[in-house]
Amino acid sequence: MKLNYKKINEVGQPLVILHGVFGSLDNWATVSKSIADLGYVVYLVDQRNHGRSPHSDEFTYEAMAADLAEFIADHALQNPVLVGHSMGGKTVMQYAQAHPGIYDKLVIVDIGPKAYPPHHGDLIAGLNALPLAEIESRQQADELFSAYEPNLGVRQFLLKNLYRTDAGSYDFRFNLPVLNALQANFGAEIPKLRTITEPTLFVRGALSQYIKEEDWPEILEMFPQAELVAIPKAGHWVHAEQPTRFVEVLGEFLKKG
C-alpha cells in the first residue's frame, strides 16, 4: 500500500514517525520540526485507514508492518530511525522483528508488545452516533460528541479527522467502519519472533498506564538492550503534552553510539 506522507528537511539520517489509532501525521507536525532540527530527515506517515492514506478491510499489524517495509523500500531509506506512538509503536515492533539490519534505532512511545483489552468502545459509539449528513459545523459535532466523551482535548483530537466532502457534507478521514469492526486489533499482542538487539528506547508518560512497572521484564525479553524513560506530567500523548522534554529525551538517545 502506498502511504501518504510528509517530508521535513532534506539533509540528514532518515527518521520515520508513525502515529497512533484515530490519529494522522498531523499529530506530529509541530514536534517534528524540532526533531528535524536535530539533524534528521523526518518522514511523517499516515498509516492505512488513517489520514490521507488508502482504506482497506485488512487492518492487522502484519499488514501495517508490510506497509512500512514498502514505504522504506520505495523511498530507498538507508538506516532509518523508526519512531511509533501507541498503534504506531506496535507497527514498529512488528516490523523490526522481520527486518533486522534495515534500520538503525527504534523509539516506542507509550505502548508495549503485550495485548491490551479493547477500551475505545465509548469513543467509537460516539463517532458512529454522529449524524454526519446533518452536521453543519465542527462546533455542532463537538456538542453532540460531548454526550459520549466529556474530555474536550480528546474530542478535539478525534474531530480533527472531520473534513468537508466534495458534496459539502462532513465525513471522517479515518475508516470508521473498519476501525469499528476490528477495534480488538488495536491492542493485539506483538508476538516475539526474534530477540531485537538494536538500540531501542521506550518512552512512557508518567501519568499513563500503558507501560507498567510489571511489564518491563517481559519487554526486556524481546528487547534486551532497551532503555525506558518516563516523562513527568505526561499521559499517553507524551509528545503532545510535553514536547520539549520529549525531544530532549529523543535527542539524548539518538546521540548515543
Entry keywords:
257 residues; alpha/beta; Rossmann fold; 2 domains; seven-stranded mixed beta sheet; 9 strands; 16% strand; globular
Q: Round the mean pLDDT to the nearest integer and report it.
A: 95
Q: Characterize the main sheet.
A: 7 strands, mixed
Overall tally of structural domains: 2
How far the N terminus sits from the C terminus, by CA atoms, comes to 33 Å
The CATH architecture of the largest domain comes to 3-Layer(aba) Sandwich
CATH homologous superfamily of the largest domain, by name?
Answer: Alpha/Beta hydrolase fold, catalytic domain
Strand element count: 9
Q: Just give the CATH class of the largest domain.
A: Alpha Beta
Order of strands in the sheet with the most strands?
1-3-2-4-5-8-9
CATH topology heading of the largest domain: Rossmann fold
Shape type: globular
Low-confidence runs (pLDDT<50, min 5 residues)?
none
Measured by DSSP, the beta-strand proportion falls in: 15-25%
Q: Which structural class should the secondary elements be placed in? A: alpha/beta
